[in-house]
Amino acid sequence: MSEQRPAFEFDHTVPGFGTVRLRPLDPERDADTVHSWVDAERAAFWGMTGLTRAQVAEIYAHMAGLDTHHAHLAEKDGVPVALLQTYEPAADRVSECYEARPGDIGVHVLLAPAGPEGRRPGWTAALLSAFTAYVFRALGRRRVVVDPDVRNTKAIARFRSQGFELGPVVVLPEIDLPEVYLPEKHAQLAFLARPAAFPDPGAG
Question: Torsions phi, psi of 100, nearest 5?
């Protein structure tokens, strides 16, 4: 199954925060921004530390040609603030570790580092709420699956605070192909169903 692609950017307004705009990542135009994020020590769990700008651009150019994996840049007031990757679980190695359901969508999230103003309380929750609105409302999905590294306790705590339910700890197998290499990963699966994120006001 191919993931539905919206024709235009997706805007979502978070009360008290502002409007988050999601747009398809441009592998070349956004390479400097994304490389600066993924090459930082804080992004070690993203798995791209040490890559050159050209290698990062090549990876996302490859992804842009896929029907099952997509990269999006999130902006607030025109400033990039996060990277969102979505994928079809059935076309990903995570499908070897759990039984994917119709309507599932996988998500990877990387937040931009804080700027000169320092920590930004509430930003993570606001951005995650915009991303869940995108996958549930714009794409019409039923459930989100995430697979953070088991050592990434901050990410796991963030997902739990947004209503994700923890699943099993699994070992994602190594992928060694000419176009992509992914090392073995010990991951904590977590799931968020659409009713938990956006309860039906008419239910009950």
Answer: -70, 140
Are 10 and 134 contacting, i.e. CB atoms less than 8 angstroms apart?
A: yes
* CA nearest neighbour of 43 among 120, 108, 102: 108
Q: Could you tell me where the DSSP H helices lie in the chain?
A: 31-38, 53-64, 123-133, 153-161, 194-197
pLDDT digits (tens, 9 = 90+) for 160-176: 999 999 999 999 998 87
Residues 33/39/43/48 CA torsion (nearest 10 deg): 110
The pTM of this model reads 0.90
Contacts of residue 107, defined as CB under 8 A and 6 or more positions apart, other chains included, come to 84, 85, 86, 87, 131, 135, 144, 145, 146
> Across the strands, what pairs with 187?
149, 170
